[in-house]
Amino acid sequence: MKSVGLTIDGEEFEFAEGTSVAAAVLNSGRHEFRRSVTGSARSAFCGMGVCYECRVTIDGVGMEKSCQIYVAQGMRIQTDGNY
Amino acid sequence: METIDTKVLVVGGGGAGMSAAAAASRDCRVTIVDDNPHYGGQIWRQGVSEKAPPEALELINKLENRSVGFAPGTTIVDSPEPKALIGSRAGKPTLFRFEKLVIATGARERFIPFPGWTKQGVYGAGGLQALVKAGLDVAGKRIIVAGTGPLLVAVAEYLQRKGAKVSFVAELAGKARLLRFGIGLVQYPSKFLKACSFALAPSSISIRTSSLVEEARGGRRVESIRLNRHGKIEEHECDILAIGYHLVPNLELPTLLGCDIGSEGAMVDSYQRTSVADVFAAGETTSIGGIELSCVEGQIAGYAATGNKESVKRLVSKRNKLRGFSRILKKTFEIDDRLKSSVKAETMVCRCEDVSYETLLEFDNWRDAKLQTRCGMGPCQGRICGPATEYLFDWSPDGVRPPLFPVRVKELGDL
Ligand SMILES: Cc1cc2nc3c(=O)[nH]c(=O)nc-3n(C[C@H](O)[C@H](O)[C@H](O)COP(=O)(O)OP(=O)(O)OC[C@H]3O[C@@H](n4cnc5c(N)ncnc54)[C@H](O)[C@@H]3O)c2cc1C
Ligand code: FES
To answer: In a mutagenesis test of the B interface, which of A31, A34, A42, A48 is the best target, namely the one with the most B β-carbons within 10 Å?
Structure first.
């Protein structure tokens, strides 16, 4: 299987093509995707594009639903997590 | 804006939508729109860890051979005028014009709030399965699968195959009800039903009946759950809790178009026609009944949309029989008042806008609550908290307003 290289919060990773960005973030050991409006840490929840809890910044574009987007070569993923 | 003209437009590329397109494309140009990157919908979701099963591949081949158009990763967000819908893909809008429309938007999981449900490591049951299909590694993780519905056992078995340590399935329904469900299934000789039958669950999966998760405990991450089992309280450690209370139909699009909605979903006649002319609906958006029913309804809708009455007639009795199963499902996995007692004052009900149970107690209906607290006004637009407030407070959903899913401001300018 082909793999693609990308960064999550600046750290480099490789994932198999066809992996969703949400799965990639979780597999990287991160669980905080975003902060809620009152500041609590949130992670992907519904897995199917309805809850919007999995929002992250991808290549500078904020609020992307990561469970419905695939990883791509050179992608820059930014979570709200503080690592 | 880019425009796509098609005779039959199908929204939803799951079993129902693909079957509709396959039936309709014998006679004319058909286009399918789906917000996922691939065909498959929920049950046949494809991803890095999952290939589509043979019956799905057969349908996909058929669609490809007949040059059915496919707009992947595209979400239908609005209907600017009759016989036209707007789809949004990566911030770019497309106008779809059609003569006939088949709505096959399927269902989503129902979630009922409980203390700790916003912790990391708590997922929907089908939701976790979807994440694993998309590459999430769960090998060695201790997982508890909970809630209610035929999906739970299927999910638990899937997770086990992927190397997870599934501790048990906590099912809200009692043994007697599940037994009746199993007996009711005998008349349906189908693979799908076998997969979700509790009686036939692999012995490697332990099922705790009359059990409900009252709390997910831990710090930011879930570390254990409090389980109420026949009134006895137990504590169980876990890395992941996968929990969902059966399914609810996705009704935003039929509601937007003005289709009549009944207690099961979008209302249809024996030709899968909705109350709006030239708009058909098929699959779980009309009632929760499993993949076979979705596919038969899809076929009927596809034939009906292209005037092929003979083919419709051949399928109606099969559909009616499978609809009987849908009624059994509903009866078995109905949720009762027990879940209401675990919600606490500070439990978040609306995850988008962080509105707590206590805040909502002051209101009599969803409309007032929405206006005063923004409950249901966040990006999910009430898809998660709507069914929850319906259960907790008996509030009925109010209408929908476009865009059905959030779009970027720039894109709104283009619409
Ligand atoms: C998370 C989840 C997991 C499930 N897993 C299983 C399982 O493992 N086994 C099983 O037997 N059953 C499963 N089910 C039950 C399943 O819903 C049905 O068996 C079957 O998938 C129904 O087929 P359908 O075509 O009616 O709808 P679906 O398969 O749900 O297809 C509907 C499609 O429409 C798309 N859609 C919805 N709204 C829009 C819009 N506005 N714009 C564009 N596209 C849209 C959806 O993304 C989806 O791809 C699952 C259900 C859910 C919710
Ligand atoms: S996890 Fe719910 S939208 Fe992505």
So the answer is: A48
Q: Looking at the complex, does the CB of residue A51 fall below 8 Å from at least one CB of chain B? A: yes
Please report the DSSP string for B19-63 in residue order. Answer: HHHHHHTTTS-EEEE-SSSSS-TTTT--BTTBPPPHHHHHHHHHH
Give residue B394's pLDDT band: very low, low, confident or very high (50, 70, 90).
very high
Select from A51, A66, A71 the residue whose CB has the most chain B CBs within 10 Å, as the one to mutate to test that interface. Answer: A51
- If asked whether residues B183 and B147 sit together in one domain, one would say yes
Structural domain containing residue B291: 2-106+250-329
Nearest to A15 among B135, B378, B406 (CB): B135
Domain assignment present for B403: no
Q: What is the mean pLDDT of chain B?
A: 92
The verdict on residue B410 lying in a domain is no
Please indicate whether residue B126, judged by its CB atom, sits closer than 6 Å to ligand 1.
Answer: yes
Q: How far is CA B91 from the centre of its chain?
A: 24
User: Does B97 lie in the same domain as B6?
Assistant: yes
Has residue B199 got a pLDDT over 60? no
Q: Please, which residues bridge with residue B76 across strands?
A: B87
Ligand 2: atom nearest CA of B380 is 3
CATH number reported for the structural domain that contains residue B208 in this entry: 3.50.50.60
For residue B45, the tally of other CB atoms under 10 A from its CB is 21
**What mean pLDDT comes out for the span B124-136?**
97
User: B225 lies in a domain?
Assistant: yes
Q: How many CB atoms lie within 10 A of CB B280?
A: 30
Residues B53 and B99 in one domain: yes
| ipTM for the whole complex | 0.97
Q: What is the pTM of this model?
A: 0.94
